[in-house]
Amino acid sequence: MKTDVLIAGAGPAGLTAGLELLRAGKQNVTIVEASREIGGLSRTVNFKGNRIDIGGHRFFSKSDWVMDWWRDLLPIAMPEALAGDEKRFRLGYQGAAGLLGHEAITATEAENNVMLVRSRLSRIYFGGNFFDYPLRPGLDMVAKMGVGRCVGFAGSYAWSALKPIAPENSLEDFFINRFGRQLYLQFFKEYTEKVWGVSCREISAAWGAQRVKSLSIGKALMHAARKAVTGQAKAEQTSLIESFLYPKYGPGQMWEVAAAEFERLGGRLMLGCRVDELHCSEGRVDSVRVCRDSSEMLEVDVDQFISTMPVRDLICALRPVAESNVLKIAKGLQYRDFITVGLLYKNLRRGSAMYDRSGQLVRDNWIYIQEPGVKVGRLQVFNNWSPYMVADQDSVWLGLEFFARDDDELWLMSDADIMSLAIQEMQQLGLADAGAVLDATVIRMPKAYPGYFGESYEKFDLIRAYLDQIPNLFLIGRNGMHRYNNQDHSMLSAKLAAQAILRGAGDKSSIWAVNIDDEYHEESK
């Protein structure tokens, strides 16, 4: 088999690259996907009509190109309550700059392939109370934490603002400089170390630079004050966005539609096909051996290769074998694996924090669990992502997220034991009773998060330099670049890789600039 461009991975990055190449007139483009699923970490799992969003995916980007790309595949639906009144609909979201676009909104919520406009709410659960996320110091926090503790937070933040840690080497330094040591210890340290499995002192400050960026207590307060005075506030940090788009049936719907469009335009999509070896000749990738359905081997001659596969796997697949020092560094790269436990409840515990004073289910999309003594890190409320994610509107459909490593005790537990753990922890947190569970399932995602720690990560530039010298090899996406990209960052890296192939350009620096340089990341009109 021969193909002009072979793309490894049918997630956001791989499908974006494939579509961009075909739309520009490139022929003979093939995507191989190791699993039988479309969308990678952004896929939607359908469990008996109840849908699971693995990790939670808000469709919002500072890039107008990304927003247009999404809206082109899935138009925005007018809510049924505002049918025919587009002006009123737009006025309701005038603070979310660029969210609705400029095209007329003609789709309706009754249609299937559409996106909904959703309100964003995510909070921290600690001590039986909810706290704003990002943290917003104010009377609510004082009432829940006490005057003395909040005075300590304020003094600690003031000291960090006056005497910031320099140089800023670790994630601990990053958090302390922006929130103060006391807030860091209260709200960031334990959760972050639960996610990554190592001390914040061992994690690079680059993680904070990519995920939190310039957000701080000061920025959060300014945002809140501006909103109080003007009634609206432009969100300068993605973490402050208050509305977002969301496919009616979860994020995987976007990528299933993208895959169908890719095939309609003539692309070849091969599921159950894992890249086994990359054969190089004269410094270029000239063929790729693909393992199909875990048995049949297929040799594919290629002109260009785009990889979204984990860098560790890519280096190990190179033939001739990579240089010994590069191979050693790659084998030392670490990853965090992800487990979602879907729990379907008839109802949660009445009187718990999951219901407001009027008895309605809270509106949170996800909740960060800061309580000590539990392994669950975050709680998704799928009813609030989209009502169409839940088969029975009278039930409550939750996703409990656990973070693990593929050789630790949690990952090696049976699905039945993990379900029991999730049910027990919901009861321990005082949020739901075990007897109210109607059904449950477990979804495992290996290598969900590339690790920002360890000796190998500190030497990652050597791997990048080694791979960048192969002119027809392009790395894109989260695992492909070993970078904590959101799906819009992955798409931007794919766009730039496709453009480089179309131009015959060998410079890959612009691809690596995505999600590193703030000015580039905040791309807008």
UniProtKB/TrEMBL annotation:
Residues 13-502 form the Amine oxidase domain. Coiled coil: none annotated. This is NAD(P)/FAD-dependent oxidoreductase. It comes from the Bacteria. InterPro entries: Amino_oxidase, FAD/NAD-bd_sf.
